[in-house]
Amino acid sequence: MFSFDSVFDEGQALTIEKETEMKRGKKFVSIICIFGMLVTVSLGAGCATQAQTGAATGAGAGALIGGLANMHGSWGATALIGAGVGAGIGYLIGNEEDKKDAARRQQATEGELRPLAGTTWQVVSIVPTPAKSHKSIVSHFRKDGTVVTTKTNLDGKVETTTERYRIVGSTLILSTKDYVVNATFKIDGKKLIIDYGNGSSVLQRVS
């Protein structure tokens, strides 16, 4: 015999079953999000800069928050959006930390200035050839951790720039408040060879 009660009971059972499956799905999604965040953070620990680490960590945290915040809707889309926002914020925070770290390292120790401290060098060649020619380019590495480069233009006009420098092994680190440059260097007799990666220069010792 047809019974409305039996249909209602079957419908209720199906609803309960669907809700149970949804809850299981939510738990699974949560586990995946948490696992993804942990993996991202662990990979971020090996990044070259704090900006990269911040981006990786922020992406993992953003994916977790985004995925869990919209469990009833398209959790995958919100997880991706959260990852993007988190990565951006993480990068900005990490980049500021990189700048602070560079500023802290500007004060070099006496050992980090050897063997260039107190020496003066004149550029004899630059590769690739710069678009603007100069009559002379002279760099003086001071004992206070600054290097002053004096460029004399063909018209006699003189330009002077000051950077901070440190030496770590065979790496010469030049920095200002706006940038940090790492270059490898080698002293061969009275010649100083500096390789910037995308170019190089050879300098002759003056004093």
Mean pLDDT: 74
**Total helical segments:** 3
- pLDDT below 50 for ≥5 consecutive residues: which ranges? 1-9, 38-45
Count of beta strands: 8
The helical percent reads: 40-55%
H/E topology pattern: HHHEEEEEEEE
Tally of discrete structural domains:
2
The helix/strand class is alpha+beta
Which band does the percent of strand residues land in? 25-35%
Describe the structure.
This protein is of the alpha+beta class. The chain has an 8-stranded antiparallel barrel. It starts with a helix and ends with a strand. It folds into 2 domains: 4-104, no CATH class; 110-205, Lipocalin (Beta Barrel), CATH 2.40.128. Mean pLDDT is 74; it is low at 1-9 and 38-45. Helix 1 (4-44) packs antiparallel against helix 2 and helix 2 packs antiparallel against helix 3 (75-104). It contains 3 helices and 8 strands; from the N terminus they run αααββββββββ.
SSE diagram, text form:
Elements: H1 4-44, H2 50-69, H3 75-104, E1 119-127, E2 134-141, E3 146-153, E4 158-168, E5 171-175, E6 180-188, E7 191-195, E8 200-205
